[in-house]
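Apologies for my clumsy wording, but are you able to produce some protein sequence, whichever is easiest, and the tokens describing how it folds?
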Amino acid sequence: MAGSLKTEAVVLRSIRYGEGDRVLHLYTPHRGRVGAIAKGARKARSRFGGRLEPFFHLRLILYEGRGDLLTVTSAETVAAHPRLREDRAALDSAARACDAVARLFETDDPNPQVFHLLRNQLALLDRAPACAGRANQLAFRLKLLVAAGLAPHLDACASCGERDHLSGFSGAAGGVVCGACEASAFPLDADAHEFLVEALGRPLADAPAATDRALRQAERAIGETLEHHAHVRWRPAA
């Protein structure tokens, strides 16, 4: 039904369109991922200024007509995150965070948890660019899996429930597995297991430190869970 929609949103992607417009990929708390067009956004006297860029947290009024794209009629900046744009690692982490959300959450199904996770990640990278790094990116992706209902089983064997001798990880089983159930698993060291557990329990700003080997194994566990259960692949963390 045609009408206006007021919402907060994070700009995932901004694409030049036509002679002066922009097409936006947005993530909103109560409408999930939506597409919108901002007419005249690239013209010199546009009322939108430069605020329709990736990573902006906005307060929007969108007009919903019969087409697939909503129309941006008003945009107010909540947070522009200027500092993360001045740091190469933070900028790259922000891009990977938005890409991860875009790939896993493609529909307009509401998921406020995802919106708040992304908003918090961008705010963290803006406030403390030094947090940008592989451990933080993997912690963010783990929390996205939780928000998608794909949290890996980490406290007991995902196949038989055994709590001891957990030596591998199986994406197909959906978590850690014991020695008796490791046929389809890859080896998971104790410190990689510990990283996964702690990253889930800690705030994004406090992602646990880990060795390169542990982070590689943790990333593989996250990636295989995603591929087996959501049929999605994320860009490698950096």
